[in-house]
Prior knowledge:
Blueprint: H1 5-15, E1 22-27, H2 32-45, E2 51-55, E3 63-68, E4 75-78, H3 86-96, H4 105-112, E5 118-124, H5 131-144, E6 148-154, H6 159-165, E7 172-175, E8 178-182, H7 187-195, E9 208-214, H8 218-228, E10 234-238, H9 262-274, E11 278-282, E12 286-291, E13 295-299, E14 304-312, E15 316-318, E16 334-335, H10 338-341, E17 349-353, H11 357-367, E18 372-377, H12 386-393, E19 398-402, E20 404-411, E21 415-422, E22 428-432, E23 435-438, E24 442-444, E25 475-477, H13 489-508
Parallel strand pairs: 1-2, 4-6, 5-6, 9-10, 9-14, 10-11, 14-25, 16-23, 17-18, 17-23, 18-19
Antiparallel strand pairs: 1-3, 3-4, 5-7, 7-8, 12-13, 13-14, 15-24, 20-21, 21-22
Helix pairs in contact: 3-5, 8-9, 8-13, 11-12
Subunit structure: Homodimer.
Pfam family, one: Pyr_redox_2
Keywords: Disulfide bond, FAD, Flavoprotein, NAD, NADP, Oxidoreductase, Redox-active center
Amino acid sequence: MALDAEIKAQLEQYLALLESDIVLQAHLADDANSQKVRNFLEEIVAMSDRLSLEDKVLSRTPSFQVAQKGQESGVEFAGLPLGHEFTSFILALLQVSGRPPKIDSELSERIKAIQTPMHFETYVSLTCHNCPDVVQAFNIMSVLNPKISHTMVEGGMFQDEVKEKGIMSVPTTYKDGQALTSGRSSLEQLLELVAGPQSEEAFADKGVFDVLVIGGGPAGNSAAIYAARKGIKTGLVAETFGGQVMETVGIENMIGTPYTEGPQLMAQVEQHTKEYDVDIMKAQKAKSIQKKDLVEVELTNGAILKAKSAILALGAKWRNINVPGEKEFLTKGVTYCPHCDGPLFENQKVAVIGGGNSGLEAAIDLAGLASHVYVLEFLPDLKADQILQDRAAKLSNITILTNVATKDIVGDDHVRGLNYIDRESNQEHHLDLEGVFVQIGLVPSTDWLKDSGIDLNQRGEIKVAKDGATNLPGIFAAGDCTDSAYKQIIISMGSGATAALGAFDYLIRQ
């Protein structure tokens, strides 16, 4: 396949930034997939005098390594790095050539300090918007530490491996042949997984923050920016930087931005936050919060952060259906991301639990891949917009079941089906399936606040005043974790700004 003119024009700009000669070392045969990879590599090599192509024996066909001329490489791609993984390929070229990865120096030193040899393999689909974060993280580790190596495996070209390993969710990473992790993770989270968490001592010299923001989504970053602009000492603790927005593919309602995608938006937001003096602490999970003379936040590693005020921007997480089999078959047929995992269920029967907008959007997407899609809605009528209902009705391989309750998900080593109850007749029915996509909305990430003294409503949302204040003086909240009437990215950003201004007003009156 040939790269289009626009992609080639962009690529030429990046290739001009190469800092040394790069050799693409390929293991190819005469099969159709090898020919695709050969054509791709030859087209890339023809674009720069700094690139060359040579043969090398590798463990998979087709595959190739990205190496500096005359040196060994730990960065390998099995299959074609196109779709969302094209960026991973470009970054690999630049970083292997000697251009430093754009990460904090502290992170870089932690990676370089790893002494144990490790080899990672990450299985991806090219439509997965979460996979590049994991691929790029392990590639960075491989570039910075010669004891570490990593192979991206494109599941479409290596379906036999995917089936043999029973991989039903991407990204899935193996370490030295053993399953390590599945799902989206940041570099910080993956580093903690392979090298251990940061010690409590690493947080000992933080001092007292004027404002400590907990949460790295739209509300948290907005709050941090507004606080930092006031010239006060600001910290931001985030278990997953970017929050739930990272799971969103198409965003068409950001005013002034007709179209963007979640990861792209949050990358811009992170860059914006970093332009201010904000102490960003990634891959750190808050365990408890107490209001004493100061606000004290305990992290899961035992460290305690102190602040004069705090803003809880905790966001939300996928709502579980809480039936037998859901947890047991997670990543073995039960999934929450149709964009990521849909291609793994090509020509198979799947179910979507939930008849709201996200449920029907998922069903319509999956209908182009799966042999049949069943949509199960608990209520007598679908909740989705009429335009989505109309589109779904026109697709012959979508069956919509309303007024039904999922009883359990069944299988052996992976999902084989589910049982549901017709709520009108009370009769039980069975569906033979290979996959179940849960799309029933979100719940606030506030479980850990139940003993904090902070008022929550029946849905677990934090009750807030007009200025974002909670019932505890000095503690504010913003975004999808609050009792705001609507849950939208733009509303979360606004409420983050409101909470920061509320916290500043609180501080100057103390």
